[in-house]
Design goal:
six-stranded parallel beta sheet, 16 helices, 11 strands, 38% helix
Length: 375
């Protein structure tokens, strides 16, 4: 079955972002919206920072701006602002960012042009407050939002997560909030002004660390809180690693695991058949985890990842291969679903939209193809 429905077909999004918000508008483009990226004549900062002189730069630019149209407007002059006003009157969403062509001082002007639109403003620390205009980078935002404290090895200094995570997290939150406001605007005919703080988005992404402190008075630390069951871990095999989660509480999984070992004649099933391995409290102890790992790994080292996963799936055992980046690019499931798309015939591959909709839209043109509107 081909899934073609794109829920934002017919929606126009004006994109004046350059860092924290550029992935949020890409998400709308993936779902069928007409996203028009508006740039000043000199280009936006990401076009400069992601230039060919920087390794991986053009690919990063293409990833964040896939399926968008590009329009050059000089918003410092009357002609450019008049063109922007015409676009704004027909748009349902406009996303602006601190340091971009339009900022917080322009919100009232945009609102006056189209009171039914959603105006999303993204900035490092939000509108208002002592840090409203403070300089920011990915590192400082991760530190101020708390995620750096949660990253790294236990007992060592905090670490910055790689890959510009503050921008990705802020963009995802901005896209979700904008979608909710857009739905309300369509239902009630009134627009919204949305203030997105990257610091707050990161602080909301700390798993349950805030609640642990608030309810228990305990600070969550780097390196996680550990696993709940002795089986939950990563194990070496002939050509890589696999992940296993097989506590006795998962139905047939534990019994099937012992049966598999016995069937192939591996001695690991003997110690695992002792009654203590059916005791949940025992299995949660550090000594149980330390004992489990070498016994089970002695079994997995006889097989490849594919052999282990194939057998585990057939026996309803929770196991998965630990994929390296090149494994993801060649993954047969992702290939079957045409997940990756190419920039041009021989260009690099990029992740596509991680969802497919079930309802087709008849007579509506698809969104722009990757690179179709590139200058």
């Amino acid at each position: 079955m081909t899934l073609e429905f794109r829920p934002y077909t017919g929606i126009r999004v004006l994109d004046l972002t350059h860092d924290l918000g550029r992935y949020s508008t890409r998400l709308f483009a993936d779902l069928g919206a007409e996203v028009i990226r508006i740039e000043p004549p000199a280009g936006l900062p990401d076009r400069v920072l992601d230039s060919a002189a920087k390794p991986g730069g053009p690919e990063a630019f293409a990833f964040h701006n896939a399926s968008k149209r590009s329009l050059v407007l000089d918003l410092s002059g009357n002609e450019g602002r008049a063109a922007m006003a015409d676009l704004m009157r027909e748009a349902q969403v406009v996303v602006i960012e601190r340091g971009g062509p339009l900022g917080a001082d322009d919100i009232a002007w945009l609102r006056g042009l189209n009171a039914a639109s959603v105006i999303t403003h993204i900035s490092p620390y939000g509108l208002g407050g002592p840090w409203e205009g403070a300089p920011a980078s990915d590192l400082t935002l991760q530190a101020a939002g708390g995620i750096a404290w949660m990253s790294g090895r236990g007992g060592e200094p905090p670490l910055r997560l790689p890959g510009g995570q503050s921008a990705m997290v802020a963009s995802v939150y901005a896209a979700v909030a904008t979608a909710a406001c857009l739905l309300d605007a369509e239902m009630r005919g009134r627009g919204h002004i949305l203030d997105v703080s990257a610091q707050e988005a990161i602080a909301h992404s700390l798993q349950n660390a805030i609640q642990v402190w608030d309810l228990e008075g305990r600070v969550s630390h780097r390196a996680g809180e550990g696993t709940r069951d002795a089986s939950e871990n990563i194990y070496e095999c002939r050509d890589g690693h696999v992940f296993l989660a097989s506590p006795p509480t998962t139905g047939v999984s534990w019994k099937a695991l012992l049966g598999w070992m016995e069937e192939v004649g591996h001695p690991s099933h003997v110690p695992f058949s002792e009654p203590q391995w059916l005791d949940r409290k025992f299995r949660s102890r550090p000594e149980a985890r330390a004992a489990f790992h070498p016994i089970f790994e002695a079994f997995t080292r006889h097989f490849t990842r594919a052999e282990l996963v194939e057998n585990a799936l057939r026996r309803r055992i929770v196991m998965a291969p630990v994929a390296r980046v090149r494994d993801v690019l060649d993954d047969p499931q992702l290939a079957w679903r045409d997940y990756f798309v190419r920039l041009g015939e021989d260009g690099p591959r990029f992740p596509g939209a991680p969802y497919k909709m079930s309802e087709p839209v008849w007579g509506v043109a698809p969104p722009p193809a990757l690179g179709e509107y590139a200058r």
